Amino acid sequence: MEPNKGLVSALFLFFLLHETIASPTPKPHIKPRPPPHRPCRHLTFYFHDIIFNGKNSKNATAAIVGSPPWGNRTILAGQSHFGNLVVFDDPITLDNNLHSAPVGRAQGFYIYDRKDIFTAWLGFSFVFNSTQHRGSINFAGADPLMNKTRDISVIGGTGDFFMTRGVATLETDAFEGEVYFRLRVDIKLYECW
Amino acid sequence: MEPNKGLVSALFLFFLLHETIASPTPKPHIKPRPPPHRPCRHLTFYFHDIIFNGKNSKNATAAIVGSPPWGNRTILAGQSHFGNLVVFDDPITLDNNLHSAPVGRAQGFYIYDRKDIFTAWLGFSFVFNSTQHRGSINFAGADPLMNKTRDISVIGGTGDFFMTRGVATLETDAFEGEVYFRLRVDIKLYECW
Amino acid sequence: MEPNKGLVSALFLFFLLHETIASPTPKPHIKPRPPPHRPCRHLTFYFHDIIFNGKNSKNATAAIVGSPPWGNRTILAGQSHFGNLVVFDDPITLDNNLHSAPVGRAQGFYIYDRKDIFTAWLGFSFVFNSTQHRGSINFAGADPLMNKTRDISVIGGTGDFFMTRGVATLETDAFEGEVYFRLRVDIKLYECW
């Protein structure tokens, strides 16, 4: 982001000064800031979460590892799963097909954090190690998961995503009971180094 | 932060060049950097945490969901609660009154992480959805909670707080035994988009 | 980082304009961006993690506080410890000697998040309170810990590390069974305020 801003202001000043030099009465006219923000990079992925339920150990990509006093670690707790901490290592795909070749792994955790409605707090990374992408994107934020879309923060990155920041829009693309869900993640990076 | 810096440097250059053009012997004079940092945005809130203790399920806004081998999930563990992971969904208010109308929710977790003194690691969000604020602010950092004030990082934001960064100063405003505490959060944002 | 960029672009423009004024046919020539990124600050530390195993409560600096349904909190679980959540308060030293005087504490958590190989997700802080450093550095990211080196994000800082961002390279410097490990952390900060 920085270099572009540098160029824009350099060009802007360049023309401002030309005008200034040509005109006898210079009017310092500050151009209004251009409208909102365009991502410097835009990526879309899907990831697939299969929670261990005591019977699916072969396929499960996630497990409950913390629960409230009234819960256990095999069945998501009542009261909107409040207090369940889930660890995951989910395949990332380019389309919405669980069986497509994964392009990376989504790894981290979510904690259900509200009693009266489904919301969670997320901390996780997308980890890539392919010819297309190498490196990681780190995410954190609140996921009010009953909303059609919700925004979390891209808080950093490494490798191909060195020092990046941005916003990721999550959308529940599908779910099956309490075992499987699929998220569509629309990553808009606004700081690209 | 960025646009202001752009304008400032544009104006600075504008005048520098005017001077340069007028004077026969240009003196490239670089203005010293202005003193420290002023937040581009400054907000103060309170939030209220009521930990479930087995008897207060109606009022509780938080629950212990992880504990060390020597602990359980109804009573905070000995040794400064080391190892207790607490999930919370706490009301945010503008003043220090628990019963004031909440303006948002503080959602996330803290983990007590030291045996000989009370310290915790925090990952949480302020989630707003009112006419005044819409969006979220994401926080992370160490909370040495016996200190009068302690600083954590604002690592990102969405909506009205798009891409923000800053520092939040926490202060324990009140506590009652091991069930209730109230934090005052002074949020100073230094990157505002 | 910002101020330097400001100065650089100011000087660049200053000379660009001088040239422009002197020459009859101005050629707006944008200098290419200088090669990669040099840290504005570079620090190296070690930290030492001793996991509680039921017998070492005196020395232990970490404890298992969450585990998958098939595990417990005294022994790291099978399947690459998938699902174990560990809280730590580890001494930071300047060299690789566990018994050197600590210069700070590494505090936070890691969660083993993969079944077929050792990987973890980290959220933690370096907390300093000495004459040399005062303040904190906050980290988050994926740690594929079988790799010789792996990068995580510096997502913020306070005090001497106010608003910093960067990348930290982790390297397992030593480990002893499942009880002790030592990480070398090479912190490269690219945003320094």
Automatic annotation (TrEMBL), chains A, B, C:
- GO cellular component terms, semicolon-separated: apoplast
Self-association state and partner proteins as the record states? Homodimer.
In the record, the note on similarity to other proteins reads: Belongs to the plant dirigent protein family.
Say if the entry is tagged with keyword Signal. yes
Which spans are transmembrane here? none
Q: What is its main location?
A: secreted
Q: What is this protein called?
A: Dirigent protein
Describe the function of this protein.
Answer: Dirigent proteins impart stereoselectivity on the phenoxy radical-coupling reaction, yielding optically active lignans from two molecules of coniferyl alcohol in the biosynthesis of lignans, flavonolignans, and alkaloids and thus plays a central role in plant secondary metabolism.
Species per Swiss-Prot/TrEMBL record: Prunus dulcis (Almond)
The listed locations are:
Secreted, Extracellular space, Apoplast
One Pfam family per UniProt: Dirigent
Which Gene Ontology BP annotations are present? phenylpropanoid biosynthetic process
Q: Specify the superkingdom.
A: Eukaryota
Q: Signal sequence: where?
A: 1-22
Keyword terms, alphabetized: Apoplast, Secreted, Signal
